[in-house]
Amino acid sequence: MGTLLVAHGTANPHGVAMIGELAARMSARLREPVRTAFLDVLGPGPAEVLASIPDEPTVVVPAFLTAGYHVRADLPARIAESGHRRVTVTPALGPSPELARALLGRIAEAGWRHGDAVVLAVAGTRDRQAQSALRSTAATLSALAGRRVPIGFAAPSQDGHGYPLVGEVVDRVRADGADRVVIASFLLAEGLFQQRLRESGADAVAEPLGLHPSVIRLACLRRSHALESVRSGRRSAALRARPVAEPHLR
Predict the structure, then answer these.
(1) Which domain holds residue 141?
(2) Which segments of 68-172 are extended strands (E)?
(3) Who has greater pLDDT, 121 or 248?
(4) Residue 123: exposed, middle, or buried by beta-carbon count in 10 A (0-12, 13-18, 19+)?
């Protein structure tokens, strides 16, 4: 069974390279090839990759930190477009306590100290389910950091139902008395949004989660659990299909 890692896509070459390296790290851990595809900006797309392997059962791992529109609507549409009929899609990477611990590690690398204010910076989403996952991540990070962690968007909300821009949140936290503000980047790869975080006025900005060991481990676990589920389903189907022996009459 093959594995396809599907990311959003970015024009930033470092971001593209990171996804390729994530697939390579997964491949080394799983001991099998891992293909890549992108939903936007560049190719190949998942429909193109899946159409090229129509007879190979494939597990698709969405390289997304929350299950927003791209995971719940865009990706299934691309899979249907491919015509591939033996695809299993795993959950997104988040929410997961593993990601919150990875965020804590990243802000520590950026110079965070106990007592510093922390802002959780995300790309932005109008999806209510994804926003709920962000609140869960912020709550877990708050517990780890020892103080409440507010959420800020790197991109403005289109309908006013999202969170304020990261820079606005940084200013608000300073106004509330914070001496130092550190941004926890809840982004997967380098790109335009990460650059916006660096321009937000914070004292320190953590790097994207990228190739953090927790991200690699989570991606592999998503794939392994999906494979176990497929195999379990086959065993159950085989048991259901097994003929029941007639009882011996005495």
Answers:
(1) 97-205
(2) 87-89, 117-122, 151-153
(3) 121
(4) buried
